[in-house]
Design goal:
Length: about 750
């Protein structure tokens, strides 16, 4: 669960196990440094705990080390599980701004003969606008990495991201690795992933739009590769016995229910390979599927599908779904767990067999779910559901009753096959859109998120006790604002089935939907602002495809709305923090600052000639000051106005500014601390200035970069030095001086 113009899945989903304490140098901008500036103190970075919220696309227990496992996500990197501490450690937070496309993990692999070795195939999108993929190689379980950049693209957040694994260490030779790609066939490395080349002899021909190699699995010394570009009639499963010659597996199933091999697992005791199939790559769009097993010694195939898709549900609709995850029990021959996927009406389940697939039992039917640690998993309902988008399933090779499965929002685990709870501590994959740090109240943070709405963070070290904001429940949040002089009043907007705007009169603890809303709000709920005393709402509307609509204004808490024709369409409204009569908006199409002095009734152009067409920008107001405006721009740096937008001055201490926020001033400082994600020299990083942006200090470090972090930040008005960072897949990071 990313925040670029499309949905979280198209463009872009516990505290961090280890905190870094790093001395930080002063970074001077192009402006002359002030005298007496000293190095910033060490910063500690942690996650504000929510718990998951994103798609866990793969889980891999190490076959030779008890209690060691790895997880991959579609936009939030990879993690290592430590059974002793019962938490996940993030492994890819070192990837920085320029490597944002590597936060999606396409595949992972371990070497059974060398427990320290871990390999990751990274690349979020295979589109023309995204960079190529890369392979990370570790000898110490992901503590340190070597990197090989690929000449092909990978798609950790594309359709088919729940298939796999597409990366494999050859069981005959630990120096040999195989990597299945979506559009470039099968790759091979003979130097432990340092270099890669096309694998000779692989017969399938990739297409520009297909899935390519969907899985790689070893069955003893024989390697199998799934192929996702078949039409359901041609071969989609290949094997090699010598690493050079590949052939279609004889007798393999065909038809729509076996069109695409999703995952495979090998039972070494019975010498049987289990394969799950679907009619589409998923995780959405699947309606048929099956489970088959191959007796590798005899070549005999058997259909062991637990329940055939296509039946009738309780409401009379068709029970359409596919099969996804599969894992064998290393301790018990013939014991296998498989998952359904895209089964929305009866909800997805796990099926378990102890007799090689002759009979199956649905684990959902007897499951007791406990989501008290992450209350948002009820999604506004009375009870949580067993899950959806289940394509990652793993049975602990050292504990037959320890089973985990990933969903679109969490990772569930059990130790007795009956009681299930999120096994998610340390794993945070939220795509964050909005942040507020209130000046008063219990919570120091309110967040607006992709997919899981708004949360009131009564504690930063535990998932919000209220879960997702209800009444109404939102999917992705598009707007979040607080009345500066009346902080008990908060408003939010977003995508929801029962309303797209809501207000709170208790600082964000409880909510009520607007009594009415403009018709366009259902399809294009954009950002919202409220003036400093909370008497006026100004709501902008932008469709996900970029279409902009006239803003609407309300003076009765959302009971009635009227169009504001003079407001620049699609702009983000900003309220003056000290004067309730003033609103502002920056029109990036024309490079003009618009302002209102009649409570948002009319807007007129003020400063012109500002950067136009900038792909990323933010207009912000310094707290407690009327007319003190800051404009940050991706390509043109930072500008400031002290006259309500009549004129702006360029600040030369940085050359790129993506987002900024204001927090409590340093001791003795006359101006609030300014925080920025931007570039002062060559690196894009998180900076703080205690002298009004004359000079900056970098406050994150090379181990804490989190890819793309340009959506928004917030700074704490009550605690000097604390800043909250919105990431696109690593949740909310917050840092503070040690």
């Amino acid at each position: 669960m990313h925040a670029t113009p499309l949905s979280r899945r198209t463009v872009l989903a516990g505290t961090a196990a280890a905190a870094a304490l790093t001395a930080l140098p002063v970074v001077q901008g192009r402006a002359e440094a002030a005298e007496g500036v000293t190095a910033a103190p060490a910063y500690r970075w942690r996650n504000a705990v929510i718990g998951g919220t994103g798609f866990v696309t793969g889980v891999l227990f190490h076959p030779a080390v008890r209690g060691l496992a790895y997880a991959r996500t579609d936009i939030g990197g990879a993690y290592r599980w430590d059974d002793r501490t019962a938490r996940w450690t993030p492994l890819t937070d070192h990837l920085g701004w320029d490597d944002w496309n590597l936060l999606g993990v396409e595949a992972m692999a371990v070497d059974p003969a060398h427990p320290g070795r871990l390999y990751l195939a990274l690349g979020t999108y295979a589109q023309s606008w995204a960079g190529n993929g890369a392979v990370l190689r570790s000898e110490d379980r992901g503590a340190t990495w070597a990197r090989t950049d690929l000449t092909v693209k990978l798609g950790g957040n594309e359709d088919g991201r729940g298939t796999g694994e597409r990366l494999l260490v050859d069981p005959r030779d630990s120096d040999t690795l195989w990597l299945g790609t979506r559009h470039d066939g099968l790759l091979k490395s003979t130097d432990r992933g340092a270099t890669w080349a096309a694998a000779a002899g692989f017969p399938a021909t990739p297409s520009a739009t297909g899935q390519g190699v969907t899985l790689l699995v070893a069955a003893g010394r024989v390697l199998y590769a799934g192929w996702g570009d078949s039409d359901g009639r041609a071969a989609n499963l290949y094997r090699t016995t010598d690493g050079s010659t590949w052939q279609a597996v004889p007798g393999q199933p065909s038809g729509a229910a076996a069109k695409l091999p999703v995952r495979a697992a090998y039972d070494c005791h019975t010498r049987e390979l289990y394969v799950t199939y679907a009619d589409a790559p998923g995780p959405n769009g699947q309606s048929d599927g099956s489970v088959h097993k191959l007796a590798t010694a005899t070549g005999k195939w058997s259909d062991v599908t637990p329940v055939r898709p296509g039946g009738t549900t309780a409401d009379g609709s068709t029970d359409a779904f596919a099969y996804g995850g599969v894992s064998v029990d290393a301790r018990r021959p013939g014991t296998v767990v498989v998952s359904t996927n895209n089964r929305w009406a009866p909800v997805d389940t796990l099926f378990r067999t102890t007799n090689g697939g002759r009979t199956w039992k649905s684990l959902k039917d007897s499951a007791v779910l406990d989501v008290s640690e992450t209350p948002f998993l009820t999604f506004g309902a009375d009870e949580p559901k067993f899950g959806w988008w289940i394509q990652a399933v793993a049975v602990d090779p050292y504990d037959s009753e320890h089973v985990v499965y990933g969903t679109g929002a969490t990772l569930y685990g059990t130790r007795d096959l009956k009681h299930w709870a999120p096994q998610i501590r340390g794993l945070e994959e939220t795509s964050v859109r909005q942040l507020i740090s209130p000046p008063t109240g219990t919570a120091h943070l309110i967040s607006g998120l992709g997919d899981v709405g708004v949360m009131y963070h009564d504690r930063l070290t535990a998932s919000p006790s209220r879960g997702m904001a209800a009444n109404p429940v939102f999917g992705s949040t598009t707007g979040l604002a607080q009345a500066a002089a009346r902080p008990s009043y908060v408003v939010r907007t977003g995508f929801g089935d029962h309303g797209n705007g809501a207000c709170s009169h208790d600082g964000g603890k409880t909510w009520a939907p607007f009594a009415a809303q403009p018709a366009i709000a259902k399809d294009a709920p954009g950002p919202i602002a409220t003036n400093s005393d909370g008497s006026v709402l100004l709501w902008s509307f932008v469709h996900w495809d970029g279409t902009k609509y006239p803003a609407q204004r309300s003076t009765d808490n959302g009971a009635t709305w009227s169009e504001v024709a003079s407001f620049p369409k699609g702009a983000t409204p900003l309220a003056d923090p000290a004067d309730p009569t003033r609103f502002y908006a920056y029109d990036t199409d024309t490079g003009t600052l618009f302002a209102s002095t009649d409570r948002g009734l009319t807007f007129t152009g003020r400063a012109g000639g500002l950067p136009s067409g900038d792909s990323q920008f933010q207009l912000a107001a310094a707290p407690g000051r009327s007319g003190d405006l800051w404009l940050s721009t991706k390509w043109n740096g930072l500008y400031r106005s002290t006259d309500g937008g009549a004129s702006f001055t360029e600040l030369t201490s940085c050359w790129a500014s993506y987002t900024l926020a204001f927090g409590k001033a340093a001791d003795g400082a006359a101006y609030p601390a300014v925080y920025m994600v931007g570039s002062t020299e060559t690196i894009t990083a998180v900076y703080r200035s205690d002298d009004g942006a004359r000079t900056w200090v970098r406050i994150n470090d090379d181990r804490h970069q989190w890819g793309w972090i340009g959506a928004t930040i917030a700074a704490d008005p009550r605690l000097y030095g604390r800043v909250y960072i919105a990431t696109n897949g690593r949740g909310i990071q917050y840092g503070e001086p040690v």
